[in-house]
Structures are given as structure tokens and as C-alpha cells.
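Give me C-alpha cells for this 124-residue protein.
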Amino acid sequence: MDKVSFFEIPADNLKSAQKFFKGVFGWKTEAWKDDYVNITTVETDKNWMPKEKGAINGAIFKRKSKNEKPLLMIEVPSIEKYLQKVKKAGGKVVTGRAEAGEWGWWAEIADTEGNVSELWEDNE
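Here you go.
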């Protein structure tokens, strides 16, 4: 079974969103770029991976359009294989496989209801 490994939340006001999630859930936030804030929900190892089994961390990003919604990232062993599975199951490829620096690859898909998720493949 493939797991959700990360989440992203759009926000118009990053500082307000940081304050909200820290105040409500106690999450740690750290600005990474002007338009991107890392969220830590649990302690991480040296590679920023959660130390607790089943836990995930995430980010808040600057909303670019009113259509953006929270996004779940699903870790898969091969994005190319999963893009084929998505199409076969009636879904759509929104953004094809793209490199994410030294960390791996990502792609965006839409399910049969139009909900967008992101696939993630680690660079091993």
C-alpha cells in the first residue's frame, strides 16, 4: 500500500497561516523561501524525514489562484508506472513527471472526481 508522505496547504497570508497552525496544533514552521514555509508536525531525522512511523510533515505555500486547494503527496516506487495506472483507472495526468532537485521526482494527478494529488518518487 502506498502512503501519504507530505502535504501542502495554500495560503494568501503565510504569516497568518503559520500562526494558526502553530497555535492550534503546535506545529513548528520555518520559512524556506519567500513563498514557501516548511511545517514540522513531528521530530525529523537529518534528512527531514519524520522519526515517528506513519507521521508526515508538510508546507504552506503562497496561493497563486483561488482554485488551489490543500494537496496530499503520495509516495510511489515509480511515477511513470503510476501515471499509467491513473489513466487506466479513469484519472488524468495534470503535470507529468518533473525533477525536484537532488531529492526525487514529482507529478500531479487528478482522480475521477477532479481532486488533485501529487505523486512523489525518491531519488535513490
